[in-house]
Amino acid sequence: MVRPWSKMNRLATRRKDPWNNNARKDIVKGQPLNPSAAIEQRYYTALRVLIERMIADTELELKKLFKTEHAEEYFAQDNRSFAQDASISSQARILTNALIKKYTDLFASLSKPMAERFAEESDKSSDVAVKSSIRQLSDDLTLSTKTITSGPLVDILSATITENVGLIKSIPAQYLNGVQGAVMRSITTGNGMQDLVPYLQKHKGITLRRARMIAQDQTKKSFSTLSKARMEKANIREYEWLHTSGSRHPRKLHIQMNGNIYRYDDPPVIDEKTGERGIPGQAINCACRMRPILNFGEN
User: Fold this and answer.
1) What pLDDT, in 10s, does the model give residues 162-209?
2) Which helix (H) or strand (E) holds 167?
3) Which of 1, 28, 129, 260 has its CA 20 to 30 A from that of 281?
4) What is the CB neighbour count within 10 angstroms for residue 184?
């Protein structure tokens, strides 16, 4: 059986100059693979527009509810009757249920096209980055840079779309179910908007930060997974782990892994608590990168 490296080994024997910048002559390093910040920002912006629309509408409708004559009368009285409480609670439940349905349906209808667009952009970004990195390995190595559209990549793209559809659809449910509970508590305490305004302000920030985290995490994860599949298709079996500083809470394990070389078919432990193994960008909020490696000294 002819080893997939045989042709590259012959080519490497013919040209030695490209390897002079490497510490080991039998190892060739490509350029680091970097996920697109532009894709991450576009994804977050699309989520933010939807979230801000949902929040503005929710706040407006709640202010209208609490400014009705019946509601103002209820909150102004010291001795509230059960009938009054039940009436305002019923109106609040009807309103919040309507908001939940409205925005659950809206996010659901837009989730698939948003996820498909994100997956398509991630795929193109990975394709460009991998081709560029392979070209840097050597102009003389005849590694295929043709876009891979079958096999593992089809499955990866499908899984990416499914995961992001679920994440997008979870946003209104998480926010509005919390709002509904806060509204009911504000009625029970009799404080109304006095309790509700701080809650709405706090959870607007929480929801937008979650959207930012989704965009960051999914951009890195999808890019790394797609790039790994492309590298393996090109018979590139190893990569160098590059830790990216800047996080307020960097993983000590990932710092220690910086500069180490790993195999794609034997990934390292990336989470000591769970024992999960993987590649840079796979763990939640991991900003580490990988640099493709050609190892001509491999047995």
Assistant:
1) 999 999 999 999 999 999 999 999 888 888 888 899 999 999 999 999
2) helix 152-189
3) 28
4) 14
Asked whether 125 and 36 are in contact (CB, 8 A), the reply is yes
In the block, tokens 């960051």 appear at: 216
Question: What is the C-alpha separation between 29 and 296, in angstroms, rounded?
Answer: 11
**CA 234 vs CA 126, 137, 139: distances in Å:** 14, 12, 15
The single residue listed with the structure tokens 């394990």 is 253
Structure tokens at 84: 């009054």
Helical residues (DSSP H) of 77-151, grouped into ranges: 82-137
* The two three-digit tokens of residue 3, written as one number: 């080893």
Percent of the chain with pLDDT over 70: 79
Among 1-15, 16-30, 74-88, 204-218, the range scoring the smallest mean pLDDT is 1-15
As a whole number of angstroms, the distance between CA 145 and CA 292 comes to 14
Residue 271 phi/psi, 5° resolution? -140, 110
Which residues are bridge partners to 238 per DSSP? 263, 293
Q: Are 8 and 295 in contact (CB under 8 A)?
A: no
Per-residue pLDDT of 218-270, as tens digits, reads: 999 999 999 999 988 888 899 999 998 766 778 899 999 999 999 999 999 99
For the residues 48-71, what does the mean pLDDT come to?
90
Quote the DSSP letter at residue 288: -
Question: Which token pair is 136?
Answer: 């840097």
Q: CA dist 39 to 131, 146, 196, 290, Å?
A: 18, 22, 35, 19
